[in-house]
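Hi L.,

You mentioned the student needs an example of a multi-chain input paired with its predicted structure. This one should do, with 683 residues in total across all chains.
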Amino acid sequence: MSRFFALGLASVAVSVVTSTATAQSWRTLDVARQLTDSAPASVQVVYGTGRIGVRATSNPLLYHMQLRYDATRAQPRHTFDVASRKLQIGMQKSEMRFSGRNDADAGHLQLELSRSAPVDLSLDLGAVESDLDLTGLRISRLHVESGASDAKLRFDSLNATRMSVLEVSLGAASFRGDRLANANARDIRVDAGIGSVELDLGGQWTQDIDLRVDVTLGIVTIHVPSDVGVHVTLDKTLASFDHEGLTERDGGWVSKNWDSAPHKLRVTAETVFGKLSIDKTGR
Amino acid sequence: MRTAILPLILAVAAAPLTARQAAAIQQNPKTAKPAADSAAKVAAPAVAVESTDSGKVQLSKATVDSLTQLVSRYRRDPEAVALPPENQIAMGGRTIPAGTTLAGPVAVAGGPLHVYGTVNGDAIAIGSDVIVHPGARITGNAVSALGTVNLAGGIVGGEIRQLAGALGAVPQAAEAESRAGSTRHALALSSSWLIILVLMAIGVLLFAGDYLDGVVDSLEGRFGRSFWAGIATQLALAPVLCLLVVALAVTILGVLLIPFAIVAFVLAVVGLITLGFLAIARITGESVAPAASKRYSARGAALRALVVGVSIYMGLWVLASAFAWAPVVETVLRGVAVAITWVATTAGLGAAVISRGGTKRSAPTASFAAVNDIPWQTPTPVTGVVAARRPTPSSSGRDR
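Structure written out for the whole complex:
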């Protein structure tokens, strides 16, 4: 029997020693590019683990990235094609690996973008904590794709450029979008696997909005200003719908002010094992 | 090496330009004056514009050696841009006067690179700063390793890049590290699972020993049946779960129970798989070391058999993990481990299902024909009857 206890102790020792013996090489990379004109640019951000923040810069820069990373685990990427004005920035996704430690406390990326150049922004995120404050930016298209994350998106002021589409695709995540009417997007799409999605459609309404929400398992809460008319078309399976303040009409649900409202929100929701709530009081 | 570079880096990062430069390059008194002059020109750009290249300073051999090694490390860094040849890197700093145009890359080490003119290409400072003064133009990148790029009014056509932290050849080191690291990580993971399973085995033996005995009884001598039952169970898992959910969904109150039912179902399946795996591990352990078990009590023998069995099955995974540095060997060993573990787990799951989680024991096989005593226990009526002779194995031959 003692041999087996010895084997167990040896295994424990091996586990402890091997789990603690890993090398790191932390670096800070700061890259920026001067703003030469206000021509549109395409920005593709890839980031796997850690914290990421995006915001506008008031300096005369097209972009400015501050990145803290472990060079033994990932390589930064920052390429800008002057001809096509396409910026690829962040970390090489194929080389991103989990360290087994709390990477969110260590690695981070802070990206600042120009206020004057219209930007087609695409974020491909892994397991990250993201704070996307797009206030003051000129976003012509926004695509956010995230695996397992805690994501916040906000527009505190009106997007000066009309956005063609705002797409958010999430795996297992918690997502909160604040003052999304300021995004100036006619088409908003949110696709989530598992998690909670909270969409605040407050802000300045310049047009009607089509909102498509597809959540497999989770809670979707949509906050709508009281003066906006709401029409909900829901396809639900084993899901509940909190339709307080809405009445059924033509196979959908409409708010009382639907016919008279200056701006309208058309919600097309699909959910399985979830809950959809419409809060008409705004926030 | 590190001690030689450290004061250089610290000085570059914190102090004002002149003091920084002076401290960094460890000048002797003779060279202090030109450095001070250079600083004065930085403070008064109008003077500097008229000046010529004033950054050349005399450095000690030790400082030059340190800077050379720093430059060498930078060359191997993945974030490095192409540097000019060694003899064209200005040690101690350099100033590009206004009105002059240089073909890049222009590089300095251990002192600032002041740009008033034009650099057609990259401008690089290692262990120091790049200062882009008004009217200056850099058509390529402005790069500083362990320093800063100061935009003081000039134009940089390329990227402005600052690198802090460790310098050097990371990718090769990372690759070696990743192989050793992945092997260590795989070994740690499989060893941890081995320990967890042994601890679970001890727990099951202590607190659910009877259920484990039931599964072992069901598995012994009926491996084939248990294996096919295990396959049938695996195939039936998803449909049964769907049926369960649908059955709950048809009732209004049942909908609320769906999440709990799913969790309970998963827990039950995991429990059965664990029980079955431990049962087959115990049988394997008993079969590997049958004679030795006589030295122990029944529980001690069972524990020993469990530990041996679990170690055998998980040992395959540990062995595969030990070859993580050799992907082909690891893949083959992992395939073998997966196949053996799957067969064992399937048979164990089948036995656990057949024995209903070890609660149903198989009936013991009779070694001889039992005599039914019940009909012969009828009380004799008061009136009396002629009693027949009760047949017994011994009497039957005698009667004949």
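You could point out the following to them. The interface with chain A takes residues 78-79, 151, 155-166, 170-171, 173-174, 177-178, 181, 184-185, 187-188, 191-192, 194-195, 198, 245, 249, 255, 258-259, 296, 300, 303-304, 307-308, 311 of chain B (CB under 8 Å). The two ends of chain B are 110 Å apart (CA to CA).

Best wishes,
N.
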